[in-house]
Design goal:
Blueprint lengths: L5 H15 L10 H12 L28 H34 L5 H16 L2 H4 L4 H16 L3 H12 L9 H10 L3 H11 L1 H6 L8 H6 L8 H10 L6 E5 L3 E5 L1 H38 L7 H30 L12 H7 L6 H12 L19 H28 L3 H14 L1
Helix pairs in contact: 1-3, 3-4, 3-6, 3-14, 4-15, 6-7, 6-14, 6-15, 7-9, 8-9, 8-13, 12-17, 13-14, 13-17, 14-15, 14-17, 16-17
Length: 435
């Protein structure tokens, strides 16, 4: 019952079919940047020292296999196949975990069984334009593997996978504090830390001669990106007279500049730091309270194997939900919110589907789907001071409003989980009576 069913393989094949054509389309995404970096590295120059590299060091690992192909076309094809393979493996893991969770719950509930897979697959379809041409899906797949390994108490593996993900794209580090506390409460923190430390040994060695941490200064120097909460509102206001300029930075992003943007930047940086830190702290507190509640819940007449599988499913859903909070807070408050950032919350949201309230997940799904109507768009890559139309800007603002609403709903869930036990019990009794 916990293994894949025959029809599951057809679902997996159908889920990757829409990506196949993008292996041969005309969109290059960030692959030219990756190819250029790989060529420089193979030519004997070093990132961070001889040239600016805007990603953490393990991003370079994902250029090794594509570099075996000569020329840009081969590099691009093999890089995309690499991303597609990881995406397919993530879907396999989600299907397998869904089967286990449904079996552990002793019910044939299609939401429990297929929900995580369907959320991950369907939201990915809205990002086909750039999905196989970014590092972000690689990090997103690694986060799925890490969270599932954590729920199955493979702590060393979970720590190693999360470390590799964070050293590829920094955002998975937002999940580390909550997972570390959960591991500590379960008495498995040493294995979790050991796995992460082992995975980061090459990074420590690299520190001796390459200032790899300088990638952070590149990111910190970025201005207000048009897709960000601040940028979308500034660009909307420019249609009504606010001075704002659409400025493309070659090989980087599109920013909003002008006197108002300059004034907003300092406030936005402070707000970003405060909101992200607060979300990380809240996720740690919610994770500790939530896990105790999940594992303390009584299970009547459940076989031992089913109970264990149900516990793993509950833990997967819990860690997915608490990891969402700091990721969405980062997206809402960051000055940079590139279109591919919409990939970040999809994995944790997929794992969170079987348990808990789904309103926040539904609003988040809406935000992810709206991204496709914003990027690419006419005027996006046009000359400076042209930019996207008013209609597209309204869609962008609506997307960011949906992200803010998601954050509010997730924060309410956290507040409810931190409420006194007696008050929560009374609320649960009321819900049961209403049912």
């Amino acid at each position: 019952m916990s293994s894949l069913r025959r029809g599951d393989f057809a679902l997996m094949a159908a889920s990757v079919a829409p990506f196949v054509y993008t292996l041969f389309d005309s969109s290059n995404g960030d692959v030219p940047l990756y190819h250029h970096g790989a060529e420089r590295l193979l030519g004997g120059s070093f990132p961070y020292r001889d040239w600016v590299f805007e990603y953490p060091p393990y991003a370079l690992l994902w250029f090794v296999l594509p570099s075996a192909m000569r020329g840009y076309a081969g590099f691009r094809a093999l890089f995309s196949v690499q991303v597609l393979a990881l995406d397919l493996l993530a879907k396999f893991v989600l299907l397998r975990e869904g089967n286990r969770g449904a079996h552990g719950a002793r019910r044939n509930n299609w939401v429990d069984r297929l929900g995580p897979f369907l959320v991950f697959s369907l939201l990915g379809l809205f990002q086909t334009y750039f999905y196989l041409k970014r590092l972000d899906p690689i990090a997103a797949a690694l986060v799925v593997f890490a969270l599932v390994a954590f729920a199955n108490e493979r702590m060393a593996t979970a720590g190693a996978l999360l470390a590799v993900a964070a050293a590829t794209k920094l955002y998975p580090a937002l999940a580390a504090p909550a997972l570390l506390l959960l591991a500590y409460q379960r008495g498995t923190w040493a294995r979790f830390v050991a796995g992460a430390a082992a995975a980061l040994v090459p990074l420590a060695i690299l520190s001796a001669w390459l200032p790899w941490w300088s990638f952070a200064s590149f990111q910190a120097a970025r201005g207000i990106q048009v897709e960000s909460t601040y940028g979308s509102l500034l660009w909307l206001s420019h249609f009504f007279g606010t001075p704002a300029t659409w400025v493309g930075r070659p090989g980087c992003c599109v920013e909003i500049r002008g006197p108002v943007a300059l004034e907003v930047t300092g406030v936005a940086r402070a707000l970003f730091a405060a909101m992200t830190l607060a979300a990380v702290v809240a996720s740690v507190a919610a994770a500790a309270r939530g896990l105790r509640s999940e594992l303390a819940a009584p299970r009547l007449r459940a076989p031992a194997v089913a109970t264990a599988e149900s516990d793993r499913s509950a833990c997967s859903a819990l860690v997915g939900r608490v990891v969402l909070l700091p990721i969405v807070a980062f997206m809402v408050s960051s000055l940079a919110l590139s279109p591919q950032f919409a990939i970040w919350p999809v994995g944790p949201a997929a794992l969170a589907v079987p348990r808990g309230r789904r309103a926040s997940l539904g609003v988040l799904a809406l935000a992810v789907m709206l991204t496709v109507f914003v990027f690419p768009a006419p005027g996006y890559f046009g000359a400076s001071d042209v930019g996207i139309s008013l209609g597209r800007t309204l869609v962008l603002v609506a997307r960011n409003v949906a992200l803010v609403a998601t954050l509010v709903l997730l924060a309410r869930e956290v507040a409810a989980s931190l409420a006194p036990t007696r008050a929560r019990s009374a609320a649960d009794d009321t819900v049961l009576r209403e049912r």
